[in-house]
Every structure is written in C-alpha cells, then in structure tokens.
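Memo to structure team: turn this sequence into structure tokens by end of day. - J.P.
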Amino acid sequence: MPVQYKDYYESLGVPRTASQDEIKKSFRKLARQFHPDVAKDKKKAEEKFKEINEAYEVLGDPAKRKKFDELGANWKSGSEFRPPPGGFGGSQAFRGGRATGNAADFEFGGTGFSDFFEQMFGGARRGPAGFSHSHAGEEFAERGGDIEGDIMVTLDEAMRGSVREVNVRHPVGRGFKTETHQVKVPPGVTEGQKLRLTGRGEPGTNGGTAGDLYLRVRLAKHPDFDVDGHNLIHELELAPWEAVLGAEISVPTLDGPVKIKISAGTQSGQKLRVRGRGLPQREGTRGDLIVVTSIVTPAKISDAEKKMWEHLAHESKFNPRD
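Reply from structure team:
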C-alpha cells in the first residue's frame, strides 16, 4: 500500500548536509515556536509540533537518519512511496506463525506518527497467532495475532496522564475495517513501554480469542528536556561571569520555572539536581530534574568588552593548564 513520502529535512528547514548539532538547534527553535502551550492556534500548532517531532525522531538519530537517506533523491516530497517488505526495520509481519510480508496492511490514526513513519521505522506489525484445541471436532481454535504500533506521548501526558483516541485500519477479506479505541496513557509512562489493549488485535478463528493491541510509547522530543527514565535533563547555558561569580537563574520545569543557585566557580558539565521535578513514578514519587551546566563564551564582543577581557587576562593568575 503506497504511503505519502515525508521529507524530514524540509520539515525541520535544514539541508540534507546539516550536522547533528544544526538539526538539534533547528528542532529546538521550531519546537518552542509551535509548542501547543505557547501557540495561539493550538490545533494548528499541535499538528506542526507532531510533524517536527517525527522529523527529529528520525534525523536526530544517526541510525534512523542513515536509513532515511537511503531513500535517495529519487523521491520528492508529496510523491507516493511503496515501502520494502517489513519496512526499513527489516522485520516481517507474521500471521498464524507464517510471514505474510509487509506490515503495511495496518494503518494507525491518532498516534501522533504518520503512516510513512510507521511503515519505515518499525511501526505497525503483527505478532504470531497462537493455537489451542477446539471442542468442535478436529478443528483447532486459532487465537488472533497481536498488533503492535507506536504512539507519540508528550511529556505533559507522561506527567499528568491522558486518554487518547486511536484508530486502527486493517484488512478484512477484500476490504478494510477501521476500529476506534480509547487508549489510557497513565502518568509516568516511559520510553519503550507498551500499552496493552486486550482483545483489540486481530480476531481469532474457529472460536479462538482475539489478539491484543500493543502501542509502544515514544516520548515526544522536547526543546528544553531530555529524558533519562523518570529524570528530566536540562542543559543550562551560562555566561563565563555567571560561572565564575555565581548567580541565581530561572530554569524550566513541567510545573513552571524555578530558580536555582549557581555557585561561584561552577564548571562546565557540572550537574545540579532539583529533586522531585521529574516525571511521576509508580510509587507516587517523582524523578528529578538534572541541570547540566554549559559555559558559553561570546562569539562577538565590542571594543570596550575586549579591553575588559584583556585587562582580566593581564591581571588574572589563573592558568587552566597548570
């Protein structure tokens, strides 16, 4: 089944030759611009936010980016593309223990990912069906196969939980059938966790039970945070004088900004822990916010600033190589 090709470089507004750092910077700029929390047109911003998140999910990962680049320049944005069997993940779909080829039989809606992503980067797939003896003669009841897909979960959803409406379109006979499911995203979900919807997979045969639907959580990228389990990681850029003299600086959290104290003499790469400002955990506690300092020097300075730096260089006895 052909799907709409996505030009992820175009989505992030970067050339195909862009470095990983340039891709990251472009994503952060666009993510801040189109984050639903700050945009006036929230619905439009939400769609754009999903688009740039998907693009960064691929281009921000060197392995996925390489696979995407293998498509080459023969495909243009807006053209139809027929994925290879099993998608780029290299895995085939199974039904009844036999490979049935392309996992593209399934289409998902409401997961936050496009059909192109689902089919190219390990999206929808079947699991093997199971068998059990039936009470009806010599026939065997066949349990329906499981269906797996991805669901993009924002950090706000991981923080507070949500209920999402997900559509699954799958083949039935010579046609297709679309089913709509309410998916509960509990607070504290983590990257790679599977949300299970019992009996929402493929129907069984000969009286066999239906399979299950599994949705793999992929946490949406955020312009201010990386995620490590239940901890949030924030890179805090400091001016040299803030690191040397110390400062009180406001940093973002999912609950709103908080002020932290930067001690005099703070080094680049130093980690500061703000307890209880991470994601929820099962026992009712929360992870932490880890602030990682990065000292940034000014790229351009005025003549007056240059004289002050020269004076400091002359007066200071500090030598980092001693």
